[in-house]
Amino acid sequence: MSQVTRRELFPGVWLRAVHTNKFKSSYLSITLLTPLDRETAGANALIPEVLRRGTAVHPDMESLSAALDELYGGAIEPAARKRGETQCLGFVASFLDDAYALKGEKILEPAAGLLCELLLKPYTQDGCFCPDYTAGEKANLIDRIRAQINDKRTYATQRLTQEMCKYEAFGVDKLGDEKSVSVITPASLWQRYQELLREAQVEVYYCGSADPDRVAGALNRALSGLPVNENRVDPDCEVRVTAGPEPIVVEEAMDVSQGKLALGFRTGGQTCWEEDYPALTMCNAIFGGTTLSKLFMNVREKLSLCYYASSMMEKMKGLVLVSSGIEFDKYQTAKDEILAQLEAIRRGDIEDWEMEGTRRTLIGGHLSTLDDQGRQEEFWLGQAAAGLDTTIEELVDQFENVTREQVAEAAKKLELDTIYFLKGKED
Amino acid sequence: MEKRNFSKVGETMYHEKLENGLNVFVFPKPEFQKGYAFFATNYGGMDMRFCLNGQWHNTPAGVAHYLEHKMFDTREGNALQDLAANGASPNAFTSNDITGYYFDSTEKFEENLKILLSFVSVPWFTQESVDKERGIIGQEIGMIEDDPHWKCYMNLMKALFQHHPIRVSVAGSVESIAEITPETLYACHKAFYDPANMALCVAGPVDPKHICQVAREILPKEAGPIAAKDYGEKERPQVAQSYIEERMEVSAPIFQLGWKGDAQINGEDRLRQELVGGLALEVLLGNSSPLYAKLYREGLINQEFGYSYESSAGCAFLAADGESKNPEAVCAAVAAEAARIGREGVDPALWERVKKGVYGNRVRGLNSFENLCVGQAQAFFAGYDFLRFAEIFDTITREEAEELIANWVTGERTALSVVRAKEET
Lengths: 427, 425
Description:
Distance between the termini of chain B: 68 Å
Number of domains of chain B: 2
Oligomer: heterodimer
Shape of chain A: globular
Radius of gyration of chain A: 23 Å
Number of domains of chain A: 2
Strand content of chain A: 15-25%
Largest sheet of chain A: 6 strands, mixed
Mean pLDDT of chain B: 95
Number of helices of chain B: 15
Helix content of chain B: 40-55%
Structural class of chain A: alpha+beta
CATH topology of the largest domain in chain B: Cytochrome Bc1 Complex, Chain A, domain 1
Largest interface: A-B, 38 and 34 residues
CATH architecture of the largest domain in chain A: 2-Layer Sandwich
CATH topology of the largest domain in chain A: Cytochrome Bc1 Complex, Chain A, domain 1
Strand content of chain B: 15-25%
Shape of chain B: globular
CATH architecture of the largest domain in chain B: 2-Layer Sandwich
CATH class of the largest domain in chain A: Alpha Beta
Order of helices and strands of chain A: EEEHHEEHEEHHHHEHEEHHEEHHHHHE
Strand order of the largest sheet of chain A: 1-2-8-3-5-4
CATH class of the largest domain in chain B: Alpha Beta
Number of strands of chain A: 13
């Protein structure tokens, strides 16, 4: 079985180590956790991309690629993610596990070394980031931000949260926005990079066959260039308990053939920190979280009102977000039906097969996370941003015990806050 | 039951050939939560012409894929829903060579396995359900035909090969599937879905004996006749045409480059050629090759660039694809680099490095049950064991890669397929 430990390497620099022999690879990630902020989000997201272009030792893609080949074809990818109101920036990496090296050589130490070299020893010109790499990655990031509109399904949910959380940090995207990215210079980016290294909480994740002491030793050495700071910033998240008196309705028109209807609910203070979290999770899954859910089975399959209809939960911020694709003229019917399904859960109208099928799917999904290093890393990053230590196995036990009444209670606390409707252009 | 250890990569594989001819492969993984089962037949999109009990059949393009869609129907309803209700996620695919059905689940694994084996081995088609599917598959065909990458690939197949059925799309065309009837589907099921023509691969926290027991319980007791396939006469080494172009909605021109190889007959030589072909591509144009860096710097390729060795029964080729302002220049640069390698040989340091990189990536890939099970089924039908790569890899020499480049990357074996933006009117 695998064993999960957590320890502080330096003040505010944490290592989560999953010790297991299950996998052929070892998984390493290093993430800077910083408050999500409109002013800095774009620069923050750009930093890992620019860092990935070259280091003082390996100044270009070719030499980095050769170094990775030497480590049996390891992979290191830049990452910008969002957990609650925390922006998570850094690298995720996968290397061959030491057990499978052909000549018995150690891979973990040089891999950790290369990963931290990318974070701490960038290729520089005139004491800051090189203009060439900065400009190239700025253009790439702006392309990615602009491309978000291409996938209308994700775009609608993104616009919903932007509108719903207009006055909260959560409304900021993990990539920032075009406006703030376009003004970045190599010097301003360098300054932001220095601030991050000094102030952000650092979360290191390892999953593989090496014992935690060895992993800690390797990372202690590799991270020795990190500035020492006793007061690195703890992640935080504002939770709004109530929605406004009336839902805000936002409509936009674009040249699309299918309408998108997204509904945002506040969970009335139910979050991952509360005791009713397992019930809220089940409630969201029964509402629209699986292919057995009420939205899928009734709104989509039975009534054919939507091309798709599902819900997702934001566990830290305390949101449930419904996303659906509809004909333009089905706005009212679809909205009424989605709310009627929620009403049914509030009344406790949940069949046994819905309750148990959802529970099995939810538990199966959580347990299979243990079989995937990348998904486990995502889980533990979320826990780190939330400051929680609950394991997957503990969550599974909690799901086993959720009752129909608890699900209904969780549903009763949901309050509709904002409606976003993407419709076609009339002409 | 035969137990085989592949100690270098830390895998154990159990193998048993049942009385009905089914080959069962099990990779026990007691420390995992999830079990994965892959049930495949040695029958794919290119097996259109075959002989059963002395009689030759010419079936329409797309029939194997059509059959895959209809197999989920059961007399009682639909197997997809039965599996989903048990918390399993089922699916299927049809490739040029094989058709495979699979699921994974953390609970009720054996019950789900029974459902899988049962719906794949018991056909249930009605005129109504077969007709209904025609519209759904027709839409799928319409969708892929709009995909410029798919179009570019199919055009490359047409350019590389004179008559091999790999030139024909696995899904067929709206016209070809119009001819498919329940009788066609029953005939193809009978010809190819016999246990003796199939393989079952399972990975997860399972007991190999139990898996065989379940298979014995659900599947037919005896082996039936298996159809003989025909791909026509052997391909000659030269390509059918060296350039093919299409105009579609693309923002930048996309290209696929192919170098026609010599097909290996079934057995470990096929695996060896696959490994040599993969390494040859790495040293010729791979991510850490000098040519890649040069093309990238010159803006002739971008991050979309990819490459692979491909083979099916009766054909083999190297392929590279990407976006480029000037695909002809990429093609010429590869030819020049192949000529340079012919004169100077492969840099020994580069060779050692890419060998390490490719090996590590392959071993890391074994984390995926899907990769392991699908890989073993495909390998078994091609006459070898998937995990043997770890032993063979070590013995591959630089000279073999140089020889493959010298023989295959030549003018008469090169084809370029390009999709360009529609001309402004």
